Amino acid sequence: MTHPHGGPAAAGAGPVDDEPDLLRDQFRQLLRYPRLMAGGVLLGLLGGAWLGYSTSDTYVATSDVVLRVPTEDPFNPTIAVEKTLDMNTERQAATSRRTAGRAADELGYEGDPAGFVSGLQVTNPPKSQVLRFSYTDDDPAESARRANALVAAYLADRREQTEQTRDTMIKGLQAQLDPVAKQHDELAEQLEGRSESDAEADYTVKANLLNRITELSNRISKLKALDVTPGKVIRTATPPTSSDGPGWALSLGLGGAVGIALGLLIAWVRLVFDPAARSEGDVARALRAPVLGSLPRTRDTDPLLTEDREESPLAEEYRSIAYRLAYDRRFADRRRLLVAAPRGSSRTAAAVAVNLAASFAETGKRVLIVEAELRRPSLENQLRAREVSRPAWTQDGETDAWPGGRRLTVDAGESGSFELVPGARVRNVARALTSPEMSRLVEEADDPGVTVIVLTPPVFAYADALALVDRVDGVLVVCDPRGVHRSQLARLRDLITGAGGTVLGTVMHRGQQSGGTRRGKGARGQSRGTAGAAAGAAGADAGRSDRDAAGRTDDRGAGGRRAGGGARTGAADGAAHDDPATTMALRAVSPPDRR
């Protein structure tokens, strides 16, 4: 798949990533917070240990009671009526202070009844009239004793309440019956000796009184015959043989599982509120450009040019970046590249620019590096170079003003050579960067065999890069994702596109590992610790000839690579690439991060 402009498409360069890719990327980013995750696991294990300790000596005794409502004849199906109890009300009555006080008096408990009932839990299994009394205590025998005492106290209290209600109802009915019976007796005495025809009305009243007496008597009889049994114990609490806790193994297992979830949650929250770009996906989405390469870590005392290139992963990474740029049509059509960092030091950006120049030189291109760092120029002192004749357009004026004053040739060893226009301190930086001479330097890339690389200071430090974006067009961003915020990368892209340029891609690097000073020769006979601070980009062994300014091949046998190979903008042929001498030729610049 190719970019709409012809360049390579990379993960994160598209408008939207697939959801599984985003999830995998987020999970990988969560693993960047091992301390937070370890802290969550530790908290979970501590919680599990506390749970195991707090429940290791607790015992639960359980008793079940089936409740029933009062009935006249529970064995007569014709009069037995199914009645439903309010089990929520019964649960509250079972855990009431009244029940607790009654059980405490029975057991001789001298403390507060509220403390006595604190270990009680009463539940109701679904769709049943069963109350389950569970009592928790440190002593298994005591837990069973208290559970049974609470059940007995609850049943006794419920019976007592039912009997009181029955007696109250009987007393009320008897109070109604007595005057009616007395009136009936008096009327019966008055009617003695009189015929029914003579006192028909009185006999009718007498009959009504008798019916009322019969009704009240029947109701009283039914209440006296009422079965007030409150319920039946179907399981008596016995001393438990083991503690109720989950045990140490299960507690620690649960605590570990909860700790992992907690650690992931804490790491996720930290990731959400972390403004730094933590991954290639973050950088690619913020800049809307592919990540062309990620430089491996090196020590900050390593020389910028490694001596052994046979097995150098850093050198191969630079080659890979150069090839991807070469096959990007946006770069291949104009071959102008601006290299800049967002913020901090431009040392790593200088390393990338120099190594890309050596990589393009390997493919037979004539490469020109323009150091547009006019405030603290350093490449001339960091590279082994020699001065060549000035370009033709400077011969007329013979000016020493930057950039028309000097041009150097840098020996990149087996990779060939490239040219360097070193930076110089000037009074007016903006005027020098926008001068006609600077425009002529960039226009040298119009030659099909020439590639121009411009190195500028960090974009957020100075506006020098923005002053050149409209001339160079293609920008390569060199950044440490942990040292720049996602919002800053998005703002960087807006600045570049607003100035008329295009972000071709990003080269990522990580903060370099610190190491002790190592002795050895640097770029100019200095100690290696001193040369490591300098960016010696292409020091070469003596005994081989340089490329000339027209890009001719040296006399030692890179016969397949010539300056006229303009069509081969991105790669040498397979034989030349596989040649050990060619592989050893590219000198790598280590990218230490100085902030």
TrEMBL record:
Residues 1-15, 524-542 have a biased composition (Low complexity). PANTHER family: CAPSULAR EXOPOLYSACCHARIDE FAMILY, TYROSINE-PROTEIN KINASE. It comes from Streptomyces changanensis. The keyword Transmembrane applies. SUPFAM superfamilies: P-loop containing nucleoside triphosphate hydrolases. Residues 1-20, 506-595 are annotated as: Disordered. Keywords: Membrane, Transmembrane, Transmembrane helix. InterPro entries: Bact_polysacc_biosynth/exp, P-loop_NTPase. This is Lipopolysaccharide biosynthesis protein. The chain crosses the membrane at residues 33-53, 248-269. Residues 543-558 have a biased composition (Basic and acidic residues).
